[in-house]
Task: inverse folding
């Protein structure tokens, strides 16, 4: 304004082209074929339809789905990372999923550790777990068991404290 108290700002935003996905590829997958992994994805080119628009949130959900798949098959320390690779042709990109499967594990000994005075029997805690020795470790079942232990109120003692956690070693 003329008196110097007000200012008008205009933001001009050029978002550029909306990117479409040309190709999806996988690096490091040994236990599952690239075709099987591609079928699990929400964000993928489809031969029947036009190429999908790139969406970071959907790509991130796909990463979680892939990690859950590997985690459900005993690969509890697997890592999946998605790398969008922008091409020279404007508006096109490829997504490369880099997979570090790690080793496949089976449930061994289950050790129960309780801080403080423990009046709860080991068998009560083991009864809340959805995994048992000899089974392939399923990362989803570990989360489920932690939730079951947390909701059970076994450790509450009238107070709120840290939630029970399961550690794979």
Result:
């Amino acid at each position: 304004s003329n008196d110097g108290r007000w200012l008008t700002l205009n933001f001009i935003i050029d978002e550029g082209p909306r990117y479409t996905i040309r190709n999806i590829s996988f690096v490091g997958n040994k236990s599952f074929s690239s075709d099987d992994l591609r079928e699990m994805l929400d964000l993928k080119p489809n031969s029947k339809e036009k190429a999908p628009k790139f969406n970071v949130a959907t790509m991130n959900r796909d990463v979680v789905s892939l990690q859950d798949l590997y985690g459900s098959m005993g690969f509890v320390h697997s890592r999946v990372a998605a790398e969008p690779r922008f091409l020279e042709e404007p508006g096109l990109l490829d997504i490369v999923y880099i997979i570090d499967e790690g080793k496949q594990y089976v449930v061994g000994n289950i050790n129960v550790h309780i801080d403080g005075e423990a009046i709860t029997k080991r068998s009560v805690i083991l009864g809340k777990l959805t995994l048992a020795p000899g089974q392939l470790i399923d990362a989803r079942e570990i989360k489920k068991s932690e939730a079951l232990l947390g909701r059970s109120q076994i450790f509450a003692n009238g107070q709120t404290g840290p939630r029970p956690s399961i550690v794979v070693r």
